[in-house]
């Protein structure tokens, strides 16, 4: 059986983001994806209309049902929705210290819609930060998590909060021609990649990247290899992304 990534993520009915992005990206990375569903969202490629979060009991029951059944090597989290779900995941990870863990600190959808109360989620994420093998914030999430505007200071602060490795994604920065991502391990910058900025907005790019990293880590890549593989793959699937409607975000064509 392929090494498995257990994802704690929400359902996006458009299929662009959330658990469908996770399943597709992890499958493309060569690993198997299992899901503990955190929430059912109501959204399309243009906006979020609402969501209903899973109870923490139901979330943990889903996760515990596959522990011991599947060869889980890595956990990946995306939308968690409530502070109860964040606390439940922290408890779960503490019970399984051998699992690698990719934390994608999702606060809002790329379309701008709410996926939970940002202020309470930020406070609760503090528990998850020291448990993560790697954290993959965009710069909006990095600033929200640390309360600091300056990217370098905010990254340093995330390490003070217990982070082990951080991939800072520059897609939300005002760089019209390119996007710069920076990977830090133990507080040190270990690699930077710059790619051309593709036209348009993409739905589920962050989920896809974090999940591909998780899939590669599950198969034995080190952090730097996993990130390099994931960035190359993501650029390719975004180049092929499809526009459902002129007003919507593009949906990555992951295979
Ligand atoms: N998870 C769910 C369920 C979502 O609906 C979204 C965005 O809509 C995300 C995660 C984050 O998506 P992105 O990868 O675009 O940041």
Automatic annotation (TrEMBL):
PANTHER family: HYDROXYMETHYLPYRIMIDINE_PHOSPHOMETHYLPYRIMIDINE KINASE THI20-RELATED, PHOSPHOMETHYLPYRIMIDINE KINASE. CDD domains: HMPP_kinase. Keywords: Kinase, Transferase. GO terms for molecular function: hydroxymethylpyrimidine kinase activity; phosphomethylpyrimidine kinase activity. It comes from the Bacteria. Residues 12-241 form the Pyridoxamine kinase/Phosphomethylpyrimidine kinase domain. It comes from Acinetobacter brisouii CIP 110357. One of its GO terms (biological process) is thiamine biosynthetic process. It is an enzyme of class 2 (transferase). Gene3D superfamilies: 3.40.1190.20. GO terms for cellular component: cytosol. Its EC number is 2.7.1.49. This is hydroxymethylpyrimidine kinase. InterPro entries: HMP/HMP-P_kinase_dom (IPR004399), PM/HMP-P_kinase-1 (IPR013749), Ribokinase-like (IPR029056). Pathway: Cofactor biosynthesis; thiamine diphosphate biosynthesis.
């Amino acid at each position: 059986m392929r090494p498995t990534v257990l994802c704690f993520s929400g359902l996006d009915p458009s299929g662009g983001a959330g658990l469908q992005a996770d399943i597709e990206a992890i499958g493309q990375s060569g690993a198997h994806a299992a899901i503990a569903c955190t929430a059912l969202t109501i959204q399309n490629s243009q906006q979020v209309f609402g969501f209903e979060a899973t109870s923490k009991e139901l979330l943990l029951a889903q996760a515990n049902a596959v522990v011991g059944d599947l060869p889980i090597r890595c956990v990946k989290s995306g939308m968690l929705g409530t502070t109860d779900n964040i606390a439940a995941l922290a408890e779960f990870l503490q019970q399984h210290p051998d699992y690698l863990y990719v934390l994608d600190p999702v606060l809002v959808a790329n379309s701008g819609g709410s996926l939970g109360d940002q202020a309470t989620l930020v406070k609760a994420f503090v528990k998850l930060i020291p448990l993560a093998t790697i954290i993959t914030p965009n710069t909006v999430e990095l600033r929200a998590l640390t309360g600091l505007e300056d990217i370098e200071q905010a990254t340093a602060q995330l390490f003070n909060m217990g982070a082990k490795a951080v991939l800072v994604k520059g897609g939300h920065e005002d760089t019209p021609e390119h996007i710069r991502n920076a990977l830090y391990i133990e507080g040190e910058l270990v690699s930077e990649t710059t790619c051309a900025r593709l036209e348009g907005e993409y739905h589920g790019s962050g989920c896809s990247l974090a999940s591909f990293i998780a899939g590669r880590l599950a198969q034995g890549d080190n952090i730097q290899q996993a990130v390099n593989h994931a960035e190359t793959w993501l650029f390719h699937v975004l180049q092929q992304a499809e526009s459902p409607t002129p007003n919507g975000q593009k949906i990555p064509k992951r295979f």
